[in-house]
Amino acid sequence: MAKAKRQANYELLRILAMFMVVTLHYLNHTGALLVLGEDADTRRLLGTLLESFCIVAVNVYVLISGYFLVEADWKIKRIINLICQVLFYAILIPLVFVLTGLPGKEVILEGGIYRWIQYLFPIGTEHYWFVTSYVLLYLFAPLLNAAVKGLSRKQLQVVICGLLLFFCIGKSFSPVQLVTDRFGYDFGWFLCMYLVAAYLRLHGERLLSGKRWAWLIYIGSTFVVFAFVAGIYYINKVTGGLVYYFTVPFHYNFILVLTASIALFVAFSSVKVPEKAARIVYTISPYTFGVYLFHEHIDIRMEWTGWMEKLFGPAKGYGIAGFLLHLLGSVLIIYGIGILIDWIRSRIFSCVKRRITRMKLMQWLSGLDKVFTGQRG
């Protein structure tokens, strides 16, 4: 297997996707989205439009991973590093709250055994749902890679179409929730995204050469998603129906979210990043996942927007320009803090790694990696 080579355009897209993730959470936690039964002001309409542009973030993140992993060496050290990174945040953050006496300490101490189980076993408890699905996906990656490379282009197309019919197309037109539908918050949908990315990498030369059409599809899909949500909102205001379907256009496995995600990924295949900018991109991108682990920790996810409102004032108290500045400032601050913390975390991990390189554990892990890469010991 070839070694995955980083590309500045996709690393930039990774940075953008995480910025979108934080924006999505900001919009949700500050009441900046349309809600059935509540008044639709300009701020909520604008927030819903921004949500439409950003809802592709998770799909794009998985597409990037699949695109590179399908041609990369599978390494057990990579999954161990990921688990250690998750545990660093899951365990350290509550300890910081308790030891420093920060607000929220009481909730942690009185949370009972299940809350501590969430800290100690964040993957099994879906402390971070994305991590749970991603770890499962990575464990299946060697099997998926062998399968997609053993299938013809036509066979892979049939498999992907069948999975999309089950996970995406049917639910996109159903007026009621299907029993098997988890809105894209699960391993099954990640598997679909991985196979789509693998197809693009192995057979998508023509698709990846297009840029103008890709940008048009992304923008067009985004506006149609917004039109769906706004239209259903006003229909509900008159008829009182479509309560469930109001949420569907913002599901990760909604058909237009899928088309927008693929289109944005393809559009970035033609993006040229200047050399100086690429250096900055390569410096920042390894720490973007730390932004997610920091701001989506169970002790922080419902609190950080409140911290930003203490700093800037309530988000609802601003006009449109003020709201956008409030959003941008809040997201940039959280993003910057997350990058800084993960940089510190990486330095700590590097120090620990240097100290254990001579241990038999590292030799054993290297031996396992050779099994998957086909090297002889």
State the main characteristics.
0% strand, 17 helices, globular, single chain, 377 residues, 72% helix
Describe the overall structure:
The chain is mostly helical and 377 residues long. 72% of the residues lie in helices and 0% in strands. It has 17 helices and no strands. The protein has helices at residues 8-29, 42-54, 57-69, 76-100, 105-109, 112-120, 129-150, 153-173, 187-203, 205-209, 212-239, 255-268, 275-284, 288-295, 304-312, 320-356, 360-373. The two termini are 17 Å apart. 36% of the residues are buried.
The share of residues in extended strands comes to under 5%
Label the overall shape.
globular
Distinct helical segment count: 17
Helix content: over 70%
What is the CA-atom radius of gyration, in angstroms?
A: 22 Å
Q: Uncertain spans, ≥5 residues at pLDDT below 50?
A: none
Structural class: mainly alpha
> SSE string, helix = H, strand = E?
HHHHHHHHHHHHHHHHH
Average predicted local confidence, pLDDT: 91
Short description:
The protein is mainly α and 377 residues long. The chain is 72% helix and 0% strand.
Topology (SSEs and partners):
Blueprint: H1 8-29, H2 42-54, H3 57-69, H4 76-100, H5 105-109, H6 112-120, H7 129-150, H8 153-173, H9 187-203, H10 205-209, H11 212-239, H12 255-268, H13 275-284, H14 288-295, H15 304-312, H16 320-356, H17 360-373
Helix pairs in contact: 1-2, 1-3, 1-13, 1-14, 1-16, 2-11, 3-9, 3-12, 4-7, 7-9, 8-9, 11-12, 14-16
